[in-house]
Amino acid sequence: MYFSAYTVEKVSVICDKLKTKVEGLSFEEAKKRIQQYGFNQISGKEIKWFHILGRQFKSPFIYLLFFAAGLSLVLGEKVDGIMIIGFILINTVLGFSQEYHSEKSLQMLKKFVLWKARVKRENKNELIDSKQLVPGDIVMIETGDMISADIRLIDINDLSIDESILTGESEPVNKVNTELDHEALSVHEAHNICFSGTKVVSGQGTGVVIATGRNAVIGEVAKLTTETTRESIFEKGIARFSNFILRMILVILILLFVVNIALKGADQNHLLELVLFSIALAVSVIPEALPVVTTLSLSRGALQLAKNKVVVKRLSAVEDLGSIEVLCTDKTGTLTENKLTVANINSPNQTECLYYAALASSFLTEKKGEREPNNSFDIALWDRVEKKNKEKILKIKRLSEIPFDPERKRNSVLVKNNEATILIVRGAPESVIGCSHDLSAQKKQEYLSWLKIEGREGRRCIAIAVKQDHIQHDYDIKDENNLNLIGLISFIDPIKDSAKDAILQAEKLGIEVKILTGDSKEVSGAVAHQVGLADNPEKVLLGEDLEKMNNEDQMKAVKSFSVFARVSPQQKYRIIELLQRNKEVGFLGEGINDAPALKLANVALVVDGAADIAREAADIVLLKKSLAVIIEGIENGRKVFANTVKYLKITLISNFGNFYAIAIASLIIPFLPMLPVQILLLNLLSDFPMIAIALDSVDPAELKRPRTYNIKEVVLIAIILGLVSTVFDSIFFMLFFREDPSILQTNWFIGSVLTELVLIFSVRTHFFFLRAKAPSKVLSLLFVFIVGVTIIMPYTGLGESLFKFHPPTLNHLLIIFGVVLSYFVVTETIKIFYYRFTGNYQK
After folding, report:
1. Residue from 37, 4, 370, 436 nearest 219 by CA
2. Is the dihedral of CA 12, 14, 15, 17 positive or negative?
3. Is the pLDDT of residue 830 over 80?
4. What's CA 753's distance to the chain center, in Å?
């Protein structure tokens, strides 16, 4: 960290480096430094709205849809063309709004440093805009101030800082103004530095600015957040399929065109007809309903989540959620309540122990005429103190105090209670016990054993000691000899009721859960052990240890460890980055320190009450503070994935089966086996029930493990069943090719629509269709409707005039129905055999 050297250097040395002095900079020098260092504000690469809009069209699938729309309009099929353009617009609007919204992250970060600052300029106190701060400025801070730059402290008076936006931990940090014994390698250890974006909880201080803007620690967080681009799992999968389909179509059409010309010649009429036929055939293969299917599926999933008070900001994140293989989560506020409570009291008189512990509060301050604690430890104590003792405490006069010092590890308070003067010392057990000389060796060992047990449970402990006999008003508060230890108190941030069950369910769904926290090793390990993530609470990796490893060891560490403690925002980012090399990763956080990792993760989730910047970087916001809703979200995501894959399989099988058969038939007969307008109608009619797949029910077996788009798996089943479809399309051709062209075209059209419809009911499940979960009502109703339209259409005037159909005879209809039924039986048989053979038959 850049600030490490500043933590061990004397203030005089730092001032010499920065060419400043305690009287402050001159106004002229400050202007020069603004030109040198820039304004104290977070700035990043500005992205205009048209940049974001342009990104929405950088997809092979969008190219396919534009191609299909153009061809449809060329053929005069305006309905098809307009529908496809509509699909593109829907996708563009959704994508643009989401990405434009996420770019507000930078503005959300900026607000943390846009404050007024009190500085010394030419030995005068001045109030300036924080953006005017420069390295070398002497800054004064006090209770309630937001700190606007990284500051090395010169003087302090009981200074306590809330650093939760950087560390994720809500307990205020007590600061010192002396140099440290060793260089601080993280924000947690830098006790003599205040960081930009943090807040003064209590006390006052003066310091010298050592970094501003993007050079400050929060600037590095901003850089990681704003310059990171998330790659959606869903979008990656669709892009791979689009590329595959595009290449296949181009290769086959070129071959078809060349072979047709070679066999039938290149006269003008035939060439024009062949071009139109090839265009229509290409359009029929492109799965143009995919955006509608996915949008409906995703919207349905988002609505289900909304019922549980979960807001989905990026629609595709619903499916991405179902694909994650690793869920990384912050600890505080997600697995725990983020509220310290008293866990245990080890004292002969627990009431007395609590009374003196609360009386020694360093944060008992005046608020609206009342004295109220504002520190998490003191609030926990205050909640446990009896009402009558609270009233006594509020009346007691405080004579003097020594605030908590990280080096002394304790605070001391001298109070007057009636005629007695009492010295109370409270702090780290090892420090206070060392000042208590009334303890027998046995009693001391009992206390140490108790502390060890509490420590293994991840509980923070304090000790309380007093001295009140014969103490005079002029007693030196620093004289802490012969103290009487009255007890030990442990504190815990309770585990949420739903956390353990939620993590258990996540693991049942095949998801690894990892904790990434700024808290201590002991507390993190204990929490992980309590929720069932770690058999051994000692198996925790510190962020600084991870940073010392080489790349290979880091990869091994992120795989083997489930708990990472004392991790900085950069280290969280690094862990996510390493995991993403082999896994799809979701991250659940809430603080500013989590923003870079949230922006990088495949799926970013935040809990209610998260920092604004974290909410902006997130895909999903949990308004209900329960991990259980994530599990339901994962199941919803897997349903969306399952239905999308169903659509892809069905459309590839039917489209390519029909594509091959018609293409081959066109080489055999002197006329087109199906007119371009009939091919487009076939495509349109089959799309309606295809779209309904988005609302279809899903077999429970589909939800048991994370799934990602596997082209090989989908293409293999599509090729096998596509060949079956080609065979049966060829049967239609063989049965009717000696008939009049219009009869062949009509009967083949009806057979093609019906085979595509029954294919849906076969491929929608790995089971035998009667054992599968029943299809949705919408799908069933659309199936009946399209069957009716397909059979009736050739008998209508519109069918005969516009689509050139010939009304089929009853005998022909019965033959078609027989072939369709045979097709369904063969498809079911091969499907079940295939899934049994590949080990994917779901039981």
Report:
1. 37
2. positive
3. yes
4. 42
Q: How far is CA 409 from CA 112, 274, 493, in A?
A: 31, 87, 21
DSSP 8-state assignment for residue 478: T
Report CA Rg, the chain.
35
pTM over 0.85? The answer is no
Q: Which token pair is 215?
A: 């050079």
Taking only the tens place, the pLDDT of each residue in 782-816 is 889 999 999 999 999 888 887 888 999 999 999 99
Sheet of 460-467: strand order equals 341-346, 484-492, 460-467, 420-427, 410-417, 397-405
List, in order, residues 6 or more apart from 412 with CB less than 8 Å away: 360, 401, 402, 423, 424, 425, 426, 477, 478, 480
What beta strand segments (E) does 273-407 contain? 310-312, 326-329, 341-346, 364-367, 370-373, 397-405
Work out whether the CA dihedral 253, 259, 261, 263 comes out positive or negative.
negative
How many other CB atoms are there within 10 angstroms of residue 309's CB atom?
14
Number of other residues whose CB lies within 10 A of the CB of residue 375? 22
Q: DSSP class of residue 806?
A: -
What DSSP line would sit under 237-296, residue for residue? HHHHHHHHHHHHHHHHHHHHHHHHHHHH---HHHHHHHHHHHHHHHHHHS-TTHHHHHHH
Query: Which tokens sit at 77?
Result: 């099929």
> How many residues in the chain?
843
Tokens of 413: 């308070």
Residue 814: predicted pLDDT: 95
As a whole number, mean pLDDT of residues 340-357 equals 92
CB 223 within 8 A of CB 595: no
Nearest partner of 177 among 484, 406, 423, judged by Cα: 406
DSSP symbol at 624: S
Tokens standing for residue 616:
């902006």
**Would you state the structure tokens that stand for residue 417, as one six-digit string?**
């209670």
Q: How far apart, in whole angstroms, are the C-alpha atoms of residue 135 and residue 207?
A: 11
Other beta carbons less than 10 A from residue 718's beta carbon: 23
| Tokens representing residue 71 in the block | 């061809």
Compute how many other C-beta atoms are within 10 angstroms of the C-beta atom of residue 773: 15
**Could you confirm whether 330 is annotated as catalytic?**
yes
Contact predicate 464/357, CB 8 Å: yes
Catalytic entry in 150, 158, 330, 619: 330
Question: What does the pLDDT read at residue 345?
Answer: 94
